[in-house]
Amino acid sequence: MSTKTGKSQRLEFQRLTVRDISSRKGAEPIVCVTAYTAPMAGFMDDAVDVLLVGDSLGMVLYGFDSTLQVTLDMMINHGAAVVRGSKHACVVVDLPFGSYQAYPADAFKACARVLSETGCAAVKLEGGREMAETIRYLTARGVPVMAHVGLTPQSVNQFGGYRTRGRSTVEADNIAADAQAVADAGAFAVVIEGTMEPLARSITENVPIPTIGIGASPACDGQVLVAEDMLGLFSDFTPKFVKRYADLGSQVTKAVQTYAADVRARRFPGPEHVVTAKAKK
Ligand code: KIV
């Protein structure tokens, strides 16, 4: 930005870019958390490096039993809200199931909508070697891609559940080859989800791009959690890979119970919450 004195000045709230994130390989850990709405993005923005608008919103916000019902319009609406609600973090938006797998050109059209209609910095897509051609196509056309290997929830029907991946040597070798393929294809970072710890550690040691783990390894270059999982706002069940940092769900329940009791007892609204005519002098 140019000032009156002609000196250039850094914008006060310059966002982290995908280059900032990719330069953190083997350096300071990358902190990533999911965000789906403007207020939540605002609460978390300053503390993190990446806000991920994950398609997990289908399960967390919409009550679907998998991420497969999530649409491109949903991702765009939530992505735009998260960009509006934040100033600092690099915002990455998930491509939903069906919007990118068939052909690279379809994937590009979906990405063009996501980038132009949300203002986010990058997209994330699931898959390894089978998505390498698409990642190459997208990155050659100006779309930064975060990849996602290991347990890929959009393939839940093929896996038959959400079990940890990479238990057998064959499966571990396949996931390692997937991570290498997405890095070679130009992804700027890769999420490793739900794998055996030594596998995620070894991938992190071998690929040249940052790995961001969830249910993976402390050795990853960064970590991601679903915000509602770590805040106790989603389900009573806490998966092994989640650390609960707060129990906001029970606080919401208690607050609303108190409100309900106040309304029923006519304690709310009080005189301070209503407007009355001023007494004439
Ligand atoms: O959809 C999502 O929230 C994700 C993260 C869990 C990595 O993909």
Strand order, main sheet: write it out: 1-2-3-4-5-6-7-8
Major sheet description = 8 strands, parallel, barrel
Global mean pLDDT:
95
What percent of the residues sit in helical stretches (DSSP H or I)? 25-40%
Question: Terminal Cα separation, in Å?
Answer: 56 Å
SSE order, as H and E?
A: HEHEHHEHEHEHHEHEEHH
What would the principal axes of the Cα set say about the shape?
Answer: globular
What tags apply to this protein structure?
disordered N terminus, 281 residues, single chain, alpha/beta, binds 3-methyl-2-oxobutanoic acid, 8-stranded parallel beta barrel
Topology:
Blueprint: H1 18-22, E1 30-34, H2 38-44, E2 50-53, H3 57-60, H4 72-84, E3 90-94, H5 104-118, E4 122-126, H6 132-140, E5 145-150, H7 156-159, H8 169-184, E6 189-193, H9 197-206, E7 211-214, E8 222-225, H10 227-230, H11 248-264
Parallel strand pairs: 1-2, 1-8, 2-3, 3-4, 4-5, 5-6, 6-7, 7-8
Helix pairs in contact: 2-4, 4-5, 5-6, 8-9
Could you explain the architecture of this structure?
- The structure is a single chain.
- With about 280 residues, this protein is of the alpha/beta class.
- It has a single domain, classed as Phosphoenolpyruvate-binding domains (TIM Barrel).
- About 35% of the residues lie in helices and about 15% in strands.
- It has eleven helices and eight strands.
- It has an eight-stranded parallel barrel, surrounded by five helices.
- Strand 3, helix 5 and strand 4 form a beta-alpha-beta unit.
- Helix 2 packs across helix 4.
- The longest helix is centred in the last third of the chain and has 17 residues.
- The N terminus is likely disordered.
- The structure holds 3-methyl-2-oxobutanoic acid.
- 3-methyl-2-oxobutanoic acid (KIV) binds next to strand 6.
